[in-house]
Amino acid sequence: MCVCVCFQGECANFVRLIEPWNRTHLYTCGTGAYKPICTFINRGWRAEDYLFRLVPGYVDSGKGKCSYDPNQENVAALINGNLYAGVPVDFMSTDPGIFRTMGSRPAVRSEQYDSKWLNEPVFVHMKQIPDSAEKNDDKLYFFFREKSLDSGAGASPSVLARVGRVCLNDEGGQKSLVNKWTTFLKARLVCSVMGDDGVETFFDELRDVFIQPTQDERNPVVYAVFSTSGSVFKGSAVCVYSMADIRNVFNGPFAHKHGHNYQWTTYTGKIPYPRPGTCPGGTFTPGLKSTKEFSDEAVNFIRSHPLMYHPVYPIHKRPLVVRSGVDYRFTTIAVDQVDAVDGRYEVLFLGTVKFLSESQYGITFFFFFFFLQQQLYASSEEGLTQMSLHRCGVYGKACSDCCLARDPYCAWDGENCSAFTQATKRRSRRQDVKHGDPLRQCRGYIAKVERRLQEKVQFGVEGSSTFLECVPRSPQATIKWLYQREGRRKLLNREGEVLKTPQGVLLKTLTKADAGLYHCLATENNFKHTLARVSLRILDRDIAVALTTPDEEEEASRSHHKNHHQDPAAPTPALLLEPEMRLFQQYCQSYWEQLTAGGNSQADLPKRANRRHTEALKASGE
Q: Going by CATH, does the domain composed of 15-336 fall within 3.30.70.100?
């Protein structure tokens, strides 16, 4: 008897696959408590029907379609009624592969237990991409990472990123590779950056792939997210690949290895006909109708030589985005094409996960686009989140901030930073994604913002510290603080006395000389503007201490009253302090008003009923 053992929280049906079957139905698969199952869901003819029901009486096996383990990644694509999936096919996840099930074509899979084909792979993405105008040349491209065959010998890296492909009309071999792919090929994806010391750092952990369509359906753009596999250097990168470069590698030399300790070299022997990886009935093999007609030499060659010698390099031979020295890594990517005033732009949405302790796991996000409503959907095991692509309100109500954001979704409409569309005709739309030049785009608006900027009054006590807040809206802005006193401005640069942070500046120990007007000046793209003006006024330390420290006589009186008069109706300590607090507030209000008016004589100060307060005032010379 076989008993299914599940970890806590995993004995449930985790949905891992949802593919559109037709206009009215979806095909979906779940883990089924470590027994994968699939079924159809009726979604109705129209979205307004709000119909989402299981088709009664239909349950199919999910083997070769969906993973057993909810923590195991799997990918799938439903193409012309055939389901293609990259998934482990057993309970222990020891037999992963690329499978084709359902539909009119025969079921096929990758070679079983052959590390030359797949070596502990983790599948990331798959997509049908045509290679030519001939439909028989259509291929399924799949992206994955796997353990390197050379990692056991201590070589680096231990994990490699791969791109593979098979022909959609592959039916397996006649004598060899029966019910197995006879067009299976794979190549390495390289994403690396060269350091200042000349050492090349590779990002080999492929995390996610997004394929951006273009006007030419045969040449989409491939965006891939990577992370480093080592523990010394932690970083993430986004690399972009062209389909032309990928095809050139698959049309190039094959990799060959004589033995386990030999280096990989190019195969220099005779290449059989048809060339391994060629589709039957395609542009180069019009006379062959099926892969079962392939020669034994061609089938045996691809069984032993599935790897291409040359790797695929990204466009411009370098990453598009690199992040290192942070407490997170990239996990997912989605790309949107946006039409702006000065052209079309690609906007990258990157999902991240924070590095936690070894006993904790972060949340991994999977992005889905719904372009009609201009919404981004991010899902995880915690739930589904819907976010608008237009978030123009975060840039504030200044034309300069809207322009400096260089957000193709947003434009200045004369009053606000609002969503931009090509069809919008109301008011004058000001947008400059390419240059982000407020001086050219925001003439007449910059002076208005400067005039509307209010001066904030802030008080500090002599000898203590105070924090002047100024948070720029843009992370690209450079902040400088200017100190103004008696009409003269100078750069605030006091080593050891001032601590500058991204949120503002901390004055560690205040003196009377620190009183004055402080300007927070932001510079971005050669445009300078004032974010905040803070008028700092310093309160005398002795007066502040006197007002906030209780009298000894009052303390003794309170103690005596507490020890000899245990009245249950006696006021609480908070109520006993209320007169002192009210007196402190009155004093502060009078003191601030006198400082503002320039008066500082003792006669102008309110009289005190407290002897210690009066002595403090005399001692300070007020």
A: no
> How far is CA 36 from each of CA 13, 14, 249, 381, 400, rounded to the nearest angstrom?
8, 9, 37, 18, 55
Cis peptide upstream of residue 220 (ω within 30 degrees of 0): no
Contact 392, 409 (CB under 8 A): yes
Name the E strands within 546-616: none
Distance CA 481, CA 199 (A): 39
CA distances from 185 to 3, 89, 143, 188 (A): 38, 21, 12, 11
133 CB-near residues (< 8 Å, 6+ apart): none
Peptide bond into 88 cis (omega under 30): no
Q: What is the CA angle 560-562-563, rounded to 5?
A: 65
Length of the chain: 622
Task: Identify the pLDDT of residue 43.
Answer: 87
pLDDT band at 619 (very low <50, low <70, confident <90, very high): very low
Confidence of residue 526 (pLDDT cuts 50, 70, 90): confident
- The predicted model scores a pTM of 0.80
Beta-strand pair 478-485/328-340: unpaired
Residue 20: half-sphere exposure toward Cβ, Cα within 13 Å? 5
Domain 454-539 belongs to what topology? Answer: Immunoglobulin-like (2.60.40)
Give the helix/strand (H/E) hosting 106.
none
* pLDDT tens digits, 94-133: 999 999 999 999 999 999 999 999 999 999 999 999 999 9
Burial status of residue 556 (CB atoms within 10 A of its CB: 0-12, 13-18, 19 or more):
exposed
Write the CATH number of the domain with boundaries 390-448. 3.30.1680.10
Per-residue buried b or exposed e for 363-379, using 16+ beta carbons within 10 Å of the residue's own CB: ebbebebeeeeeebbbe
Instruction: Tokens for 292, please give them.
Output: 């079962």
Six-digit token pair at 347?
């906007």
Cβ-based burial of 117 (10 A; exposed 0-12, middle 13-18, buried ≥19): buried
Angstrom CA distances, 188 to 155, 300, 491, stand at 16, 22, 53
Domain boundaries, the chain: 15-336, 390-448, 454-539, 543-619
Q: What is the largest CA-CA distance in the chain?
A: 113
Please list the alpha-helical segments (H only) found in 261-415: 296-304, 399-405
The three-class DSSP label of residue 351 is strand
3-state secondary structure of 422: coil
At a CB cut-off of 8 Å and minimum separation 6, what does 143 contact?
123, 124, 125, 126, 161, 162, 163, 164, 189, 206, 209, 224
Given a contact cutoff of 8 angstroms between Cβ atoms, the answer to whether 349 and 334 are in contact is yes
Q: Residue 591 has what pLDDT?
A: 57
The domains spanning 15-336 and 454-539 adopt the same CATH topology: no
Q: Which residues pair with 159 in a beta bridge?
A: 147
CA–CA dist 551, 81 (Å, integer)? 88
Q: Is 618 left (phi over 0), alpha (psi -120 to 50) or beta?
A: alpha
Q: Please give, one letter per residue, the 3-state secondary structure of 524-560.
A: ECCEEEEEEEEEEEEECHHHHHHHHCCCHHHHHHHHH
Which helix (H) or strand (E) segment is 482 a member of?
A: strand 478-485
